[in-house]
Amino acid sequence: MADKQKITIVGAGYVGWSLSVLLAQKNKVTIFDIDEARIDLINKNISPIVDSEIDIFLRDTQLDLQAVTDKKLAYQNAEFIIIATPTDYDPATGVFDTDSVEAIIADIWKINDRALIIIKSTVPVGFTQRICKQYDTDRIVFSPEFLREGQALKDNLYPSRIIIGSKSERAQQFASLLKQCAKKVNIKTLFMESM
Q1: Cα angle 30-192-94, degrees, rounded to a multiple of 5
Q2: Average pLDDT, the chain
Q3: Alpha-carbon Rg for the chain in angstroms
Q4: Which residue numbers in the chain have pLDDT < 50?
Q5: What is the DSSP letter of 82?
Q6: pLDDT at 9 (0 to 100)
Q7: Sign of dihedral through CA atoms 29, 30, 31, 36?
Q8: Residue 13 CB neighbour total at 10 angstroms
């Protein structure tokens, strides 16, 4: 994969923004968010989150990155679309509210019929299997993140491990993108069955 990949990341919080900065070193990245103030900051090369490593990257590293609030523009030509939006967990009922993730998948499905969709949002066990069955597809995968607030880019540059909930060739390509942009070498990478 020598050519730059077109990657869209949905959500400009800690997970999405740090992944955008990581992947924009070697790929063409579009970050989509509904918060116009965040998008404006990003397009002015200002981080919307507190992370000293990101501030250094914005100052010293050439990134191929644009931020948009137009979902059609964000999704239409992407080869990989990463969903990094928050989900709500209700401890009283023990239930996750995955409505935002499901709405994003529905939008992507209408606009782009070929991208690999990677869920980085927190979802309950069984969610990915259910959503793949709903769309009769294997191009939706889950990949958990292991990030700390304020250290998100550092944790992406030096990951303890990469886990992908698929053994497909496209899932392996996505893992390669993460490894190519990391500074750590010999990253333990696990390809699991979807849950």
Answers
A1: 80
A2: 94
A3: 16
A4: none
A5: E
A6: 98
A7: positive
A8: 18
For residue 98, give the amino acid letter.
T
Sign of dihedral through CA atoms 77, 83, 84, 86? positive
Q: CB count, 10 Å around CB of 168?
A: 15
pTM: 0.95
Q: Extract the tokens encoding 128.
A: 């990915």
Exposure letters 41-52 (e unless 16+ CB within 10 A, then b): bbeeeebbbebe
Name residue, tokens 């939006």: 85
Question: What tokens appear for 153 in the block?
Answer: 């880019």
The DSSP line for 95-146 is EEE-HHHHHHHHHHHHH-SSPEEEE-S---TTHHHHHHHHHT-S-EEE----
Tokens, residue 180: 């190519």
Q: What distance in Å separates the CA atoms of residue 182 and residue 170, rounded to the nearest whole number?
A: 19
